[in-house]
Automatic annotation (TrEMBL):
It is found in: Cytoplasm. Residues 24-137 form the Calponin-homology (CH) domain. Pfam families: Calponin, CH. InterPro entries: Calponin-like, Calponin_repeat, CH_dom, CH_dom_sf, SM22_calponin. Residues 179-200 are annotated as: Disordered. The keyword Endoplasmic reticulum does not apply. This is Transgelin. The gene is Tagln. Keywords: Acetylation, Cytoplasm, Muscle protein. It comes from the Eukaryota. Belongs to the calponin family. One of its GO terms (cellular component) is cytoplasm. Its main location: cytoplasm.
Length: 200
């Protein structure tokens, strides 16, 4: 916030480590995706961590992004006509985006905290959340994703297998190597070294 002074000592070290995790190349990819997903009306940020933070800070761009991943008529986040200028309204808008992202399927551990974005405490966490959201959108493949599918990795999906009764019965006759075997090496003749000598 405005009354927060500079960080010194260990706080400064921790903050600099967090800032080093921010990826400029990833920022470019995320900006391209957001513009492709939401349209050119969202504009583009100034390059760099601070420009990216200012672009997303009021929550409107993020809200448009998550709404664009849903079909028409079921938009999870209400977007005000004019961008909010009051701090608590902007933070509320970010919180609505985070709730919608979780509802979409982003894991809670991949979701950033509101202050990570609003106060630029951890912009790398914001990038992680957007990457997770993009990966889910590509994986769902429901026609709502716009942009290059190669920008994000597809998440692993369940591959369910069905077996017939005869296949299941056949499997009971096979002895797997994990169960052991009565052929081959044995422990006969093994010694465990010399016994411990007690000297008095």
């Amino acid at each position: 916030m405005a009354n927060k002074g500079p960080a010194y000592g260990m706080s400064r070290d921790v903050q600099s480590k967090i800032e080093k995790k921010y990826d400029d190349e990833l920022e470019d990819r995320l900006v391209e995706w957001i513009v492709a997903q939401c349209g050119s009306t969202v504009g583009r940020p100034e390059r760099g961590r601070l420009g990216f933070q200012v672009w997303l800070k009021n929550g409107i761009v993020l809200s448009r992004l998550v709404n664009s991943l849903y079909p028409d008529g079921s938009k999870p986040v209400k977007i005000p006509d004019t961008p909010p200028t009051m701090v608590f309204k902007q933070m509320e808008q970010i919180a609505q985006f985070l709730k919608a992202a979780e509802d979409y399927g982003v894991v809670k551990t991949d979701v950033f905290q509101t202050v990570d974005l609003f106060e630029a405490k951890d912009m790398a966490a914001v990038q992680r959340t957007l990457m997770a959201l993009g990966s889910l959108a590509v994986t769902k493949n429901d026609g709502n994703y716009h942009g290059d599918p190669n920008w994000f990795m597809k998440k692993a999906q369940e591959h369910k297998r069905e077996f017939t009764e005869s296949q299941l019965k056949e499997g009971k006759n096979v002895i797997g190597l994990q169960m052991g075997s009565n052929k081959g090496a044995s422990q006969a003749g093994m010694s465990y070294g010399r016994p411990r000598q007690i000297i008095s």
